[in-house]
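Marked as duplicate of an earlier ticket. Keeping the data here for the record.
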Amino acid sequence: MINVAELTTFLVYFVLLLIVGYYFYKKTSNIEDYLLGGRKMGRWVTALSAQASDMSGWLLMGLPGAVYLYGINQSWIAIGLFIGTVVNWILVAPRLRVFTEKTNALTISSFLEERFKDPTGLLRIISAIITLIFFTIYASSGLVGAGKLFESMFSIDYRVAVLIGGAVIVLYTFLGGFLAVCWTDLFQGSLMFVAVIIVPLIAFFSVGGSTPILEAMSLKGISGSLIPDTALPLVAIISTMAWGLGYFGQPHILARFMSIRSIKELPASTVIAVVWVAFSLFFAVLVGIVGIPMFGELAGGDHEKVFILMIRELFTPWLGGILMAAILSAIMSTIDSQLLVSSSALTEDFYQKIIRKEATETELITIGRISVILISIVAMLLALNPNNSILGLVSYAWGGFGAAFGPVILMALFSRRTGWQAALSGMITGTLVLVVWERLGLGAVMYEIVPGFIANFAAILIVNHFVKVDEKDFSDLFDAFRDEVRI
């Protein structure tokens, strides 16, 4: 039976998003506005947009579900992500902002081509292909989350729920581009932050505190220790913490660094982002822990709905509807970013690079909007299987970006000795190792991002040893960053 209060809340929420999309539709006049907001985003918008688009539905569904099933040792994922967030903001953000502006790059793919002075165009094309593949998988994970949410709330068919959620996301991303995505992320990130703190705190006291939680964990045979209950606990810890390595290669997060108004805004933006992510990860883990005594064995084993069930258990329909919207915020704030980056890959890196180099600004924006629709259709088709795991899909896509791009981005920003041959070799090697590792089923032993990331770095270092480059060819970017910091 449909809950009128929850339905009303969601309809109001959708209307607000579409109004924002239409407003920024009028503000978007060129392709830089559509893809990067004209590089004029403020510290709060940049910070909350980066983190909201980072965390996605897995923060409120996937991570609590994993903790609910396996216990506190899953917290190593959160610890790894926190460390990765801090390092990414401090080391990568300032250099990437300066380097991409100096190279006039609107996408990570175009930045890699310009930074490494690739005469073949292979770096740009292959990185764009990798972006499209993994972002389609990533976006489908969000649509799975939307399907599970709507199915639980409105008792509608899962596949219909996926299509409804996808349609709304596509519409406001189609209209407003990067500006709409970032400004809605500011609101969505704030709503997520409030919900992920309030819900588990009230739930914690409603179950009676830590004693009932520990008793319930003991009854279910779930460890209350951070040490994984495996034959190789250190390997398990490294594997889960390795999620943090993925940050250096996530195009939708890196795009936020590229869009900020000035690197002078970054210190304040970093503080905002780090505080947001520390609280959000801690309380997301608490959701899973408190869910153990609150629900026992979930019917059907759908552990990724624990946050949804917790809201329904503790709050009135009207307040519950607002808190449920936080889950939708987490889902939508990531999918819209992924659609936009994928759209930029098709528009900038394929259409303008290969098909129509003389394309006008209006034409590029139109192609960008058409690309959003095409990618969304593929992602929705992948998401129609109700047996998909949110965390499983996110894990693979996240690892794919980390293994393919992470080392290449770091070398682009910190090494003058790396040429395009090494960058291309590393990117291809890291991706292939990740895919093969996962296909062989070795991900159960070690998260595939680890061998992929290491293989990428190793390939770059080997090629660098044999292919020498003139460091002076790349000095202008490093000098520009040094001068920017001095100002």
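See parent ticket for discussion. The longest helix spans residues 158-206.
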